[in-house]
């Protein structure tokens, strides 16, 4: 059953009101919901960057046109962000990866997850400069793939289509989805310099807020703080190129508008994958 609850009391009431008539009906309802979820994202996931005959990654497609994110993000910012900034990182990552054939069949998430482990660096004989380049450019690729697809058309109405499980976790942690986004805005607004703020699925199964500098992200074990480790479910870019043309140096104004772009169905999708340990599928 897919609902969203704005407070803990609503969750409690729904627990009583939403009991199915039979166990069979409950199973059928869940199966149908999962099928619709799979179909809804099948086309979006076709753009997953994978190695081709030239052993290189390509950019994931934007779900919307460049002007589809207005009024929160303007057309010019989206074009520059997608093609120049994020696109440049993909080219740089491919250039480094070309020197390491053993990494070319490895999922991006697996590389990023292990870059902070000395045995991984030693096993693949990674040079220090190349390790840094993989971290920065690979991190950018993973982060932006989430960023592009966590955004949908501007909508200020109440969120919908969260499962009972996820809605319960959100409400137990923050009180409501709106409060969760407020906490995300606070973390993003207080981050010094460039970086990202995240809603994450922690290793212990709880949800939390994290922020990371530069192009780091929560899957980078030992490269980020223990408190920031987890699987990213929502990510917001607070590098200045993400907002400066429209908002100048007023990051808070950008964040206030950006939260109205969050695609709740993609948040649900990422949560379901994180629970199953499908870290690379979130990137894809």
UniProtKB/TrEMBL annotation:
Boundaries of every Manganese/iron superoxide dismutase C-terminal domain copy: 165-268
Domain of life: Eukaryota
Enzyme Commission number(s) of this protein: 1.15.1.1
NADP as UniProt keyword: no
Entry GO CC: cytoplasm
Protein name, UniProt field: superoxide dismutase
One example GO MF annotation: metal ion binding
This protein's UniProt keywords: Metal-binding, Oxidoreductase
UniProt xrefs under SUPFAM superfamilies: Fe,Mn superoxide dismutase (SOD), C-terminal domain, Fe,Mn superoxide dismutase (SOD), N-terminal domain
Enzyme class, spelled out: oxidoreductase
Manganese/iron superoxide dismutase N-terminal domain sequence ranges: 58-151
InterPro entries for the chain: Mn/Fe_SOD, Mn/Fe_SOD_BS, Mn/Fe_SOD_C, Mn/Fe_SOD_N, Mn/Fe_SOD_N_sf, SOD_C_sf
Stored PROSITE patterns: SOD_MN
Keyword Metal-binding: yes
Family statement drawn from the similarity comment of this UniProt entry: Belongs to the iron/manganese superoxide dismutase family.
